[in-house]
Design brief:
single chain; mainly alpha; Growth Hormone, Chain: A; 79% helix
Length: 396
């Protein structure tokens, strides 16, 4: 395989990376409540663990991205493989401590969550950097395969947990992480040497986030809107089990609902290249904020499981749309030396949403119930939607 051949189509290889990554992410994030409730944690404690993991990943994401943007740093491929090696170690420790330590179970699960979130901008940048190098790669199709993998794994783990117990979660995570390491290892990628502009080098923009946000003022406001819509998204996804229980379901129904949400993302992602030819990515990005609000509202008012299943179809133009449009949007408004950092800050909005959503979600459920948590999620999505509509700038 000639990695210097710019005509080579890397979509299939990158689709494998996205597929295994989102399978690992889905298993970890989607079943954290199931796993830790089984180990004796309360909703509030689960929320705290998610928040701690998110806080540390929020710190690490821009730091690692700034390092990756430097000319002398290792390639994205090497950085991802090193990070996955650490993830594998924590996964083994999580499995070993399944029945032996209440405290360490939570600590190791939080570490796995943190690493999974740190990987997101690196995995996205791996694809966009390949595109920027002139390689043939359809990011939408590859990311769609990620959602397909997510749908498959949450459905299977949902059944496995019902039959074998919560220990299925770390076992699945270890197997999937191994598959991800192999797919990254096989993906043909070489770092393209970047020369920072004289102005960027003088200002030290690779290391100073304040100068970065001064350079991209409207982008910083847009990020606030993203944080708010992601708070609602995290509340719906981190506490899906509690939501499903409130509507009369259990673990199998939770897996089914999550699988539906992931599958309906596929048409959006597969067709996004065609959609970009019709409408600019910044407009699609704005539309995604509207559907985050609609999904939160639909989840709030859904009276039972069949209606809840129907609400999952709104994922098509919510998460399914923002996850691809945001990557193209950042790539279109950033200068070359800022792209990886921009992707990291965009991903960090999800992380910050995870922190806030986790802290608030568990406490709201324990003290006021699932309905109050969903009402808060709807309000947060509504405000975030308005900010995104007003602050998102025109793509170049």
């Amino acid at each position: 395989m000639n990695i210097s051949d710019k005509k080579e189509n890397l979509t299939a290889g990158y689709a494998a990376v996205q597929c295994f990554y989102w399978m690992a992410f889905g298993g970890l994030v989607g079943f954290i409540s199931v796993y830790l409730l089984d180990r004796g944690y309360t909703n509030t404690q689960i929320g705290i663990l998610i928040a701690v993991a998110g806080a540390f990943s929020a710190i690490l994401q821009p730091v690692l991205a700034g390092y990756a943007d430097q000319a002398k740093s290792p390639s994205l491929k090497k950085l991802i493989l090193i990070t996955l090696g650490v993830q594998l170690v924590f996964g083994i420790l999580l499995l070993v401590t399944y029945e032996s330590s209440f405290l360490l179970t939570g600590v190791f699960y939080a570490c796995c969550m943190m690493i999974a979130q740190v990987l997101t901008p690196l995995v996205n940048a791996l694809g966009m950097e390949s595109i920027n190098q002139g390689k043939r790669l359809n990011f939408g199709i590859a990311r769609g395969m990620g959602s397909g993998g997510y749908a498959f794994v949450v459905y299977v783990i949902g059944i496995a947990v019902g039959r074998m117990g919560a220990v299925s979660v770390p076992i699945a995570m270890l197997i999937i992480t191994g598959g991800l390491m192999v797919s990254v290892l096989l993906f043909p990628f070489q770092k393209q040497q970047k020369e920072q502009t004289e102005e960027a080098g003088r200002k030290g923009e690779n290391r100073n986030p304040f100068l970065f946000f001064q350079k991209y003022k409207r982008f910083s406001i847009t990020l606030v809107g993203c944080v708010l819509v992601y708070i609602s998204h995290v509340l719906l996804n981190s506490f899906t089990f509690q939501i499903v229980e409130s509507k009369g379901g259990g673990s199998p129904e939770m897996g089914t609902a999550m699988a539906i949400a992931s599958l309906v993302e596929l048409p959006t992602m597969f067709l996004f290249g065609w959609m970009l030819k019709k409408i600019r990515c910044d407009i699609w990005f704005r539309i995604s904020g509207i559907f985050f609000f609609l999904k939160s509202l639909g989840t709030l008012i859904a009276p039972e499981m069949w209606t809840f299943y129907g609400v999952q179809f709104l994922q098509m133009f919510g998460w399914g749309l923002i996850i691809v449009s945001s990557v193209y949007y950042v790539n279109s408004i950033m200068e070359k030396e800022d792209v990886i950092k921009g992707q990291a800050y965009m991903t960090m909005t999800y992380t910050l949403g995870s922190v806030a959503g986790a802290l608030l979600g568990g406490a709201l459920i324990d003290r006021m119930g699932v309905s109050s948590m969903l009402l808060f999620a709807t309000g947060s999505a509504g405000v975030g939607m308005v900010i995104m509509l007003l602050s998102t700038q025109r793509a170049k």
